[in-house]
Amino acid sequence: MDSNGSIKPSRVIPGPTNPMVTPLLTDHYQFTMAYAYWKANKHQERAVFDLYFRKNPFGGEYTIFAGLEECVRFISNYKISEEEIHFLKDNLPGSCEDGFFDYLRGIDCSDVEVYAIPEGTVVFPKVPLMRIEGPVAVVQLLETPFVNLINYASLVATNAARHRFVAGKSKTLLEFGLRRAQGPDGGVSASKYCYIGGFDGTSNVAAGRLFGIPLRGTHSHAFVSSYMSLGDISDKSLLKKDGSSTCKDFVVLVQNWLNKIKWSNSLCGIFSETNQSELTAFISYALAFPNNFLALVDTYDVMRSGIPNFCAVALALSDLGYKAVGIRLDSGDLAYLSCESRKFFRCIEEEFGLPGFGKMSITASNDLNEETLDALNKQGHEVDAYGIGTYLVTCYAQAALGVVFKLVEIDNHPRIKLSEDVSKVSIPCKKRIYRLYGKETYPLVDIMTRENEPPPKVGQRILCRHPFQESKRAYVVPQHVEELLKCYCDGSSGKKSETLPPLKDIRERCIKQLEQMRCDHMRRLNPTPYKVSVSAKLYDFIHHLWLNEAPVGELQ
Ligand SMILES: Nc1ncnc2c1ncn2[C@@H]1O[C@H](COP(=O)(O)OP(=O)(O)OP(=O)(O)O)[C@@H](O)[C@H]1O
Ligand SMILES: O=P(O)(O)OC[C@H]1O[C@H](OP(=O)(O)OP(=O)(O)O)[C@H](O)[C@@H]1O
Ligand SMILES: O=C(O)c1cccnc1
Ligand SMILES: [Mg+2]
């Protein structure tokens, strides 16, 4: 790592985060195909594969590309162990010759070139996110793990970005999904990629340690209901924040405040007796964390118990020089309850002359998703932070991104995959991708060209064609041209490869990228599709190859 935390290509790149990511984490057919290539002495033919997806998820018109670092870590450490070779021998047809296993033993991916769009970039359908070039048998073995590593990562990062879009820039977003995620890898991956997508923190301690994501959390209903009465508190003393003296009985101080609130001018009549087990839990938590007091206020009754109890403890803490953090609401009408809680806090601020009390932080949770966040915005609310779990990490609204890995060239021969469904026809050739920016600062169109075409130039008009629809085309005079595919693994070609940036930089890139998109691509309802095009030369070539490969039908 250098001083910015970047991993230099000349240094050792660590293995994948998940130790389950090994050469065997692939489909059986990749090994049988590898054997058939080997048997036909075709295994060393140089193949180019594109990894891309066909449709943006969640009914949107953009996707966040994520998972690249794990792919680079995987192939930089690729080695089939002796024990794995034995397993393969036992599990491939007995007719497989020993020479094949010697070949597998020698594979290390050092001859595989990986070009990719930087992780955290906003990307679009059909555009290769990664271009993988190497011996056909080897690249074929990489298909399944690469698709696996990109699919969920990009899906959940996009989901996070969409939640951020609805919540707004100023809100704190916390990922609380570990318990509901699809297994341990789902949980840890969700924390990593939601952070990239714009979340601020996670409750997942393992993810905090692995990736340095800020750890955040409150407490649960079980903590509140585990206390019975004020008698549960044995040590009632609390040292003042400045260390000058100790309050011998913090419980009495809290009780006095509760009484004052109850009979105050502005709050009189809102509540009578609050729940004493809840009050005990809050006091206990404040004694443990006087600097970080945040209370879950909905266990019994938010306005008649949770909020007054919280305020009494916060005011007592304030007497001793501490500043409470705020509350969490986890049920009921979150718009209404957040507004009522805010009113209560403001009354306290005014009544007792405590500047800042009205701004106490309000966190909301409970089955939140894009729709509920949108509904809260429409109704008006006072929530500062959201804790989001199930809908976010399980990608409840869409289960998979549908990433594919298609052969586009072998031994310098461009290849195409045809389909009845035009959207499924692959775009042949080893390609370069450019993002063209217009007069305003936002991107206008992505254009794919053949590898050896001259790149688009600033100020020079270029024809951008829809890859399959003849009539859809436009001239563009770019004000800025960005080549998207960068070299991450040089395949021993000696080309300069990119460093793997730290997670924070990927997150920042993602946030900046989203900010520069034209807003009609981003809106939730009927967003405008972003244009993805090919050069005139590539267009002609696609259709030439298409005609060449498609058999002519015969009508009878
Ligand atoms: N103001 C609101 N507008 C729209 N949806 C809301 C609003 N407030 C909360 N919600 C959502 O409504 C749902 C309420 O869930 P549910 O009907 O299970 O009640 P609950 O509040 O969880 O009750 P309990 O926890 O007492 O069973 C949650 O998905 C929550 O995110
Ligand atoms: O609601 P999610 O978006 O999944 O966010 C995480 C949830 O997990 C916790 O409670 P849990 O759901 O385990 O219990 P509860 O529903 O009984 O509060 C927390 O209180 C949140 O409600
Ligand atoms: O810290 C929290 O409040 C939390 C963590 C995980 C799930 N639900 C809530
Ligand atoms: Mg819940």
TrEMBL record:
One family name in Pfam for this protein: NAPRTase_N
Gene3D superfamilies named in the record: Aldolase class I (3.20.20.70), nicotinate phosphoribosyltransferase (3.20.140.10)
Domain Nicotinate phosphoribosyltransferase C-terminal: 430-541
Biological pathway: Cofactor biosynthesis; NAD(+) biosynthesis; nicotinate D-ribonucleotide from nicotinate: step 1/1
Organism classification: Eukaryota, Viridiplantae, Streptophyta, Embryophyta, Tracheophyta
Name used for this protein in its record: Nicotinate phosphoribosyltransferase
EC id: 6.3.4.21
Organism of provenance: Medicago truncatula
Post-translational modification: Transiently phosphorylated on a His residue during the reaction cycle. Phosphorylation strongly increases the affinity for substrates and increases the rate of nicotinate D-ribonucleotide production. Dephosphorylation regenerates the low-affinity form of the enzyme, leading to product release.
